[in-house]
Structures are given as C-alpha cells and as structure tokens.
Design brief:
The complex is a heterodimer of chains A (115) and B (111). With 115 residues, chain A is mostly beta strands. Helices cover 0% and strands 48% of the residues of chain A. Chain A contains no helices and eleven strands. Chain A starts with a strand and ends with a strand. Chain B is mainly beta. Chain B is 0% helix and 63% strand. Chain B is built from no helices and eleven strands. In chain B, the strands form two sheets. In chain B, strands 2, 4, 5, 9, 10 and 11 form a six-stranded mixed sheet that branches. In chain B, strands 1-3-8-7-6 form a five-stranded antiparallel sheet, with no helix packed on it. The chains are: A mainly beta (115), B mainly beta (111).
C-alpha cells in the first residue's frame, strides 16, 4: 500500500516569494492534516480536512497561508508571500475513521528554506 | 492551557541498556495519549495509543504505560536501530483527531 506522498521534498526560496506544497494521502483516508514542524520541536497542526471540508483551521495564519483539498483527495498548501520565519518542515498526514484512534500516517515532509 | 512535556530531551544508551522516556501532560479531558517514532528526515510513525490510566501496550522492545499525569515509554535491551526521536502526543475529548505533540526525546543507542 502506498503511503502519504508529498512534494517537493526540499524547496529553497527568497523571502516574499510564493511556494506551494502538494500532498496525496493514502487511498480511502478521508481525513487529511497539514502540520508544521520546526527544528527540535514537535509537529503543530495547521489545518485538518474531513473530505473537502476544512474542519479545523484555527492555527493556519490566514493572511499568508491557504490550503485546498478539491475533490476530497489530494491537497495543496500555499504560502504567499513567504517570510524568513516560515522555514520549517511541512508535514502532511492522513487517517481513516476521522483519526479517532490517533493513528495518523505521515508523509516524509517538505522542507522549506526561506532566504 | 494544555501542555505536553517530554524528558529527557536527549538520551544516549549502550546496546542492551534498558531505560524509560517520560511524557507528562496537563490536559483537561484527556481522550488519548499517543507515542510516535520519528527518524531523521522522515515523518512520525505511529507506535501506540493509550486511553486510560493503568493501560499498557507493547511492541517488540517497547512498552508504553499511562497514569493520570504521565506516560512512560520503556525500552528493554535497545538496539542501534531503536535510535530515533520519540514523540508523545495527546488529544482531548471533543477534538479527538487533533493531536498536541511534545518536543520529543532524541534517543541514540550505541554498540
């Protein structure tokens, strides 16, 4: 079974430039998450989707971050414009049964460096 | 405010030297406590879910336990391949699928 696929794995951009990350979850998983992980820290939830609906986006900085999950399958996270403090790893995860068991399946992440 | 604190930040063991990692939490209305393993450059990998005080789960050399204030991840006779960062997370009743993670314990097991 294929895991959660993310791209790109690495991205280096200059500040004020836009960037987008893509995630394809495990087939059949209706719940999709985007997490942010800073170096030496645990992941922090940015947004959670149930199918196409964003059910928890309270931690998403909406002035510069946006996300979408068209058709309830893959998802895109966008930052525009990027700031130096956005340098981090962006993790996508998916789960079935609405994640009630706490078993989330994570992708390998997209590492962003903003210069 | 909900808090998850892991200790120690880093731990170095020799192969076969058993030890425990600690996760203390302050959460109003705990739904579940979760342990994940994260290798460098990878996403976290699920290990265990614990729901109630007194519960224990085992997997190979790992055993997770839960009390009303903390959880322990016991590592028995570790091997170098157990080297990783171990993350603890909690969820609350009403928001079961929203996990709050601790900062992790970096474990290194040497020969």
């Amino acid at each position: 079974e294929a895991g959660v696929v993310q791209s790109p794995r690495y991205k280096i951009i200059e500040k004020k430039q836009p960037v987008a990350f893509w995630c394809n979850p495990i087939s059949g998983h209706n719940t999709l998450y985007w997490y942010l992980q800073n170096l030496g820290q645990g992941p922090e939830l940015l947004i959670r989707y149930e199918n196409e609906e964003a059910v928890d986006d309270s931690q998403l900085p909406k002035d510069r971050f946006s996300a979408e999950r068209l058709k309830g399958v893959d998802s895109t996270l966008k930052i525009q414009p990027a700031e130096l403090g956005d340098s981090a790893v962006y993790l996508c995860a998916s789960s079935n049964r609405r994640g009630q068991t706490g078993e989330l399946f994570f992708g390998e992440g997209s590492r962003l460096t903003v210069l | 405010e909900d808090q998850v604190t892991q200790s120690p930040e880093a731990l170095r063991l020799q192969e076969g030297e058993s030890s425990s990692l600690n996760c203390s939490y302050t959460v109003s209305g705990l739904r579940g406590l979760f342990w994940y393993r994260q290798d460098p450059g990878k996403g976290p990998e699920f290990l265990f879910t614990l729901y109630s005080a007194g519960e224990e789960k085992e997997k190979e050399r790992l055993k997770a336990t839960l009390t009303k204030k903390e959880s322990f991840l016991h590592i028995t006779a570790p091997k170098p391949e157990d080297s990783a960062t171990y993350l603890c997370a909690v969820s609350k009743t009403g928001t079961a699928s929203k996990l709050t993670f601790g900062t992790g314990t970096r474990l290194q097991v040497t020969l």
